[in-house]
Amino acid sequence: MGRPRQSGGPSRISFRHRPQKIMTTPVPALNFDLDLVTSLEERAFNAWPAQKSALCGGWLLRLSEGYTKRANSANALRPTAAFAETLRIAEDFYARHGLPTIFRLSPLASPESDHQLEQAGYRKIDRSLVMTAALPQQTQSTPDVEILAAPNHAWSTGFAEANRVPEAARAAHDRMLAAITMPAAFATLSDNGAPIAYGLAVAENGAVGLFDIVVAPAARRRGAAARLVGALLAWARHKEQAVHTCKSKPTTRPPSDCIESSDSNNNMNTITAYAHRT
After folding, report:
1. What is the structure's pLDDT at 240?
2. N or C: which end of the chain has fewer CB within 10 A?
3. 89: burial class by Cβ within 10 Å (0-12, 13-18, 19+)?
4. How confident is the model at residue 86 (pLDDT cuts 50, 70, 90)?
5. What is this structure's pTM?
6. Are the C-beta atoms of 197 and 220 separated by less than 8 Å?
7. Which residues pair with 190 in a beta bridge?
């Protein structure tokens, strides 16, 4: 594990994937279109905005009260050769805010930065693929899915419970949702009047990203995720004129954290990948 400088403050980072595991199975080598990767990274930053951020040597240091690694990590904006000074500044930055230093490594991060982090003792976790697909020409809304333009109390509370958001992190979670500036859809799927699944879609510039599709444990393996995703894609097609969808997919997932898959991924293309070092 990395050894960031400590400021004496408590570490409050909330990890979304449980349990944390060092990833030992290599991801197959892929050739990435860096212009497309940059476009997707920008959309992801807009869809899950950090409360504060700072620029440092081609890296974006994001800060959001320790809630989620994506919003509390250093992210490369372009490949850069020099990294030692960036590492020092990032460690000081996160230590000053009482948080562990986390680097989110996309293909925009240079191999040298990954190598230096490994040498410094940072372990690699949560390898994920970002996949895209063309939206189907025909999409159909689902009557039992309610879609809101902004989250209300019922959506925020239900989502937090279904996704096991810690009580202490819920205020930060709600502030981050309120900070989304792009067109968004907050969806709730109900079964016999009882909410069983929640999801978030954010549209931007002809594409829609799917985030945090979560089904209550008792309702999994019954097609709930597929119905929820179908409704979100219908929203994107008819309201925001999106023509592509993208989502991230962990390369491995502990059985206890598995949720129902919304599709077989047969029609999706891998566009980019990322992992965290912490």
Report:
1. 66
2. N
3. middle
4. very high
5. 0.81
6. no
7. 195
Cα–Cα distance measured from residue 103 to residue 2, given in angstroms and rounded to the nearest whole number: 10
Comparison of pLDDT for 126 and 259, the residue scoring more: 126
Distance separating alpha carbons of residues 266 and 264, to the nearest angstrom:
5
Let me know: does 171 contact 67? Beta carbons within 8 Å.
Answer: no
Rounded distance, CA 41 to CA 70, Å? Answer: 11
Residue with tokens 């372990």: 123
Higher pLDDT, 89 or 27: 89
